TrEMBL record:
Record organism: Solanum commersonii (Commerson's wild potato)
Cell wall biogenesis/degradation as UniProt keyword: no
Pfam families: WD40
Keyword Lyase: no
Protein's cellular compartments: Nucleus
Protein name in the entry: Uncharacterized protein
Major place of residence: nucleus
WD repeat extents: 105-134, 175-216, 217-267, 272-300
Coiled coil stretches, renumbered: none
Lineage: Eukaryota, Viridiplantae, Streptophyta, Embryophyta, Tracheophyta
Keywords: Nucleus, Repeat, Transcription, Transcription regulation, WD repeat
GO biological process: regulation of transcription by RNA polymerase II
GO molecular function: transcription corepressor activity
Length: 335
């Protein structure tokens, strides 16, 4: 599996694409200065005509919406990102001679956090388009995630997890326990539990009250590279539903975890905004829609490139996917 973005937590009906800047369209109206190719009745493939990227630096790798319908997209290793509000470009965020690996909005959408292979994490002021604070770490930053509006977690190649706060020059807490690089860190919707996954194949659950992990999930057989909480439980619009965690691994499975009980709930084997469905994308060019309740695939869409990431809209009826062939597709799963 190449990447997955599960359950619906995003907002808006806009889309971004590839050319080392960022492009955004209203899906119903079509793009400006671009060509729409309709491969199937329920899929829009948007491809801009103009590009400032070289052939080796065109991949669309990250899609991320914030609560104000702004989008940031980190396109290639040497370009930071663009912030867009319909229908105009708002800001271009750049940091010279730096490679960005991950990005994340804070809860209210006024700060953007980016992690980098230059061993830094930068908090950006969205309004000014300038860095508010830069944090330095001993090793490459692989992932970042906000706990609230001013505190965040950092996963690093040095096997460590760092908890940082805007205004503080040093991490306020450190978690150790992984035996290999930490590929992803994600806070649950309430901000009380932190999940992490690693090349050591494990998924671990932490909280700020203790220094050791609460749970150590070891069912994956190969490197675990991505995780996502369900939009259920405390802090969500579905407080009475069970909180779940999904993890994706290079063993070609997605595992669903019951975090409260500390056990594996389902293993979804598919590839070589109500929490009921999960979307996954893969190197085999397929995007699968899963039923969480039945633990099976209910729909499969075939693309024409490796899928880097997938993302639901707020209504839960469309999924965007970014491909290695410089395209972003929107799938209407109702059709």
């Amino acid at each position: 599996m190449s990447g997955f973005y599960l359950w619906l937590e995003s907002v808006g009906s806009l889309l971004a694409s590839q050319d080392s800047t960022a492009r955004i369209w209203t899906i119903g109206d079509g793009p400006c200065n671009s060509t729409i190719q309709r491969r199937t009745p329920n899929v829009l493939v948007l491809k801009p005509l103009e590009s400032r990227a070289t052939e080796e630096h065109k991949d669309v790798t990250t899609l991320d919406w914030n609560v104000n319908f702004l989008l940031v997209i980190f396109v290639d290793l040497y370009f930071s990102g663009c912030l867009v509000r319909e229908p105009c470009l708002q800001q271009v965020l750049t940091k010279a001679k730096s490679e960005y690996g991950t990005d994340m909005w804070n809860k209210i959408g006024d700060y953007l956090l980016s992690g980098s292979v230059d061993r830094t994490a930068v908090v950006w002021n969205v309004k000014s388009g300038k860095p508010k604070q830069q944090f330095e770490f001993p090793a490459v930053v692989l992932d970042v995630d906000w706990q609230n509006n001013d505190s965040f977690a950092v996963g690093s190649i040095d096997n460590m997890i760092y908890i940082c706060k805007v205004g503080e020059n040093r991490p306020v807490k450190r978690f150790s326990g992984h035996k290999n690089e930490v590929n992803a860190v994600k806070w649950d919707p309430s901000g009380s539990l932190l999940a992490s996954c690693s090349d050591d194949t494990t998924v671990k659950i932490w909280n700020m009250e203790q220094d050791v992990f609460l749970h150590d999930f070891r069912e994956h057989r190969k490197e675990t590279y991505t995780i996502k909480w369900s939009p259920t439980g405390a802090g969500t619009s579905n407080p009475n539903q069970q909180l779940l965690l999904a993890s994706g691994s290079f063993d070609c499975t997605v595992n669903l975890w019951d975090v409260e009980q500390g056990r594996l709930l389902h293993t979804l084997n598919g590839h070589s905004p109500n929490g009921q469905y999960l979307a996954s994308g893969s190197v085999d060019t397929c995007m699968n829609i899963w039923s969480v309740k039945e633990a099976k695939i209910v729909k499969t869409y075939n693309g024409d490139g490796i899928i880097f990431e997938v993302c639901w809209n707020k209504e839960g009826n469309k999924v965007a996917a970014c491909f290695s062939n410089n395209k972003v597709c929107v799938f209407d799963i109702r059709l």
